[in-house]
Amino acid sequence: MNPRLAAAFDLLPEYLAWHVLLSASALALGLIISLPLAVAASRSPRLRWPVLAFAGLIQTIPSLALLALFYPLLLAVSALSLSLTGHGFSALGFLPSLLALTLYSMLPILRTATTGILGVDPAVREAADGVGMTARQKLFQVELPLAMPVIMAGVRTAAVWTIGAATLSTPVGQTSLGNYIFAGLQTENWVSVLFGCAASAVLAMAADQLLGLIETGAARRDRRLMIAGAVGLLMGIVIAVLPLVSFGKPASYVVGAKNFSEQYILAELMADRLEKAGATVNRKEDLGSAVAYRALAAGELDVYVDYTGTLWTNVLNRQDNPGRQAVLDGLTTQLKKKDGVTVLGSLGFENAYAFAMKADRAKALGIVSLADLAREAPKLTLGTDIEFLSRPEWKAVDAAYGFKFKAQRSFQPTFMYRALSGGEADVISAFSSDGRIAADKLVVLTDPKGALPPYDAVILVSPKRAGDQRLMAALKPLVGSIPVAAMQAANYSVDRDTAKASPAEAARGLEK
């Protein structure tokens, strides 16, 4: 079997179990909320419009944005709960995903349930009233049974939507089949991407068919079909979720990573050292910069690698550049004071934002610095990673040089390099420790005004682990141990087109 396919199958039990648990929980909660609302909306025209309009409004919000919005909201509620009662809760992972997907599942259930109840023949209602049925009896014995086929059609739609949207829960720290897709896109592991898509599609089709049995049974008044569909659905959920019993033991440590190859490699490196020290480790990957730091400060991550320039500008809101060592020293002191976060030390290399061009293109235009780039910018297209144009670093460098690009386009980091090689971008916001700079013979433009801060890779430790001797002993030897050439080689081994290494294999290479 193909090694990548074998690796995907090894991860399937855990990823599928979490995906099924999340989707089933969100759909069940959506049903519990939506059905009473649908009944109320069918009884009151005044209530009907705002209920359906709200559910429709939720659908206009992109599901990934909805998932991301719940994290800071829950984090604030958790902090308030901790201050008032002494007990907080995890705002990362399952809870924000559950709440967002529940809202996302409600519209088709609400709409079809309301329509189904309103569509019951008025003559049937009159007959029910004529035999002396109470409002409750009429609802449960007449209206809901007659509306059930229509309601189940909405439930089937909601199930498919929810299972598909659950793949987007990965960036807020929830394990799902989306882990295959996000990591695969970044490392160009198309086997992983296709495997994740196929697994999600098969799961959605299986759920749809089992719910379809219930719908058919309701339409035909055939209890055997309804029971068969319900039992099949329940058994499928139990079997899928069963592996979580073995994964249920809490991990000793949670190691975080952002959404690019270097972060996957460094997370594997730290996790491997902790596991060799006898710890169990859970990995939370594909996190955004703001989410990762907030999760660490809140104690939901124990350790992850970040970059001094990112922390200096995004966390401390500093715009100055006092120099590499001064930035590192300032962060070490101020993050401890501000959030209790420990800067364990620099890994030994810098991964700075660096504007890069194809060497022949830069030579033809006479561009060697960002000042030269500003002169030619009106004729050029800038390609960046998804975050860069909204970051303080871009605002600082743009203010320093006054760029006026013909166009600006954002890409996933992997596709950003592809855009440069394919001509869709003339210059990109590259990363200095990326092996593709040398492999693609790119030229890095100088920054004569020092607008971009330094970006030393540093290990951050959460406040609750500041005194953890096992963690410190396992990770302290990494400080100063990785030169930039070694990190470039490790990154390129994962990012190259052929003979790709996995992040775990690349991490083992760094320890040799």
UniProtKB/TrEMBL annotation:
Molecular function as annotated in GO: transmembrane transporter activity
Record SUPFAM superfamilies: MetI-like, Periplasmic binding protein-like II
Record localization: Cell membrane
UniProt main location, coarse: membrane
One CC-aspect GO term: ATP-binding cassette (ABC) transporter complex
Biological process terms in GO annotation: glycine betaine transport
Transmembrane segments annotated in the record for this chain: 15-39, 51-74, 86-107, 146-170, 190-213, 225-245
Topology in the lipid bilayer: Multi-pass membrane protein
Domain ABC transmembrane type-1 residues, every copy: 16-215
InterPro entries reported for this sequence: ABC_Gly_betaine_transp_sub-bd (IPR007210), ABC_transp_perm/SBD (IPR051204), MetI-like (IPR000515), MetI-like_sf (IPR035906), PBP2_ProX-like (IPR041894)
Keyword annotations of the record: Membrane, Transmembrane, Transmembrane helix, Transport
Record-linked PANTHER family: GLYCINE BETAINE/L-PROLINE TRANSPORT SYSTEM PERMEASE PROTEIN PROW, OSMOPROTECTANT IMPORT PERMEASE PROTEIN OSMW
Name assigned to this protein: ABC transporter permease subunit
